[in-house]
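[step 3/7] inverse_fold.run input=structure_tokens len=216
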């Protein structure tokens, strides 16, 4: 299972742009009008800086790494997967890479528009996608120069942490996920069994000097 970890802002209020991106995600998943989802989103969505998968990857967000020393390991880049339907209705899974910016906890209400998700806790990842060709860096060379606009998706879409190597003005992605343990996200109830770094587990990277929890 996995545990959300500090730094955290339990009274975090997303700005209008981020709320719009969250509502776009729910529109894509549930159908309906984006503005209706936006109007029913909670005002407060707790913000978390890291997620630790027991026996697997530890992932930081760019929100968390801003608070660390410059020499700290940057494990904010991830491999994630999105599924969509092709022209014949078949399910197609696409591999994507990006920087994990934030982790949000979104408590949904009991309104009918949430359908099967009503009265549930949704753990959302805010990711800034790399501009790639959509191929797997575990199979061939994949490079990028810049990013797309941030997107919001289910945290469970993230499959592993990836590395980067800079060369000739581009970043090459180092993806060892096919040969190593990949993050397996379980029930959302397990995800929200959240702890701060001071509650049991130590830092996932020795000597990082994590900042203290920030609560508002």
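[step 3/7] decode complete -> sequence:
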């Amino acid at each position: 299972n996995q545990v959300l970890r500090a730094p955290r802002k339990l009274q975090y209020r997303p700005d209008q742009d981020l709320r719009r991106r969250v509502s776009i995600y729910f529109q894509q998943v549930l159908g309906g009008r984006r503005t209706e989802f936006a109007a029913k989103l909670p005002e407060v969505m707790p913000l978390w800086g890291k997620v630790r998968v027991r026996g697997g990857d530890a992932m930081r967000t760019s929100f968390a790494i801003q608070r660390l020393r410059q020499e700290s390991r940057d494990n904010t880049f991830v491999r994630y997967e999105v599924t969509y339907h092709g022209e014949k209705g078949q399910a197609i899974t696409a591999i994507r890479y990006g920087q994990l910016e934030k982790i949000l906890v979104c408590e949904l209400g009991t309104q009918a528009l949430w359908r099967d998700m009503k009265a549930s806790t949704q753990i959302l990842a805010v990711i800034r996608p790399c501009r790639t060709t959509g191929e797997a860096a575990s199979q061939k060379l994949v490079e990028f120069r810049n990013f797309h606009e941030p997107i919001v998706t289910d945290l469970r879409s993230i499959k592993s942490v990836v590395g980067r190597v800079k060369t000739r003005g581009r970043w090459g992605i180092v993806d060892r996920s096919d040969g190593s343990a990949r993050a397996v996200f379980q029930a959302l109830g397990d995800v929200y069994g959240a702890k701060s770094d001071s509650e049991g587990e130590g830092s996932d990277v020795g000597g990082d000097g994590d900042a203290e929890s920030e609560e508002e």
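[step 4/7] annotate
Residues 2-175 form one domain.
The chain is about 15% helix and 35% strand.
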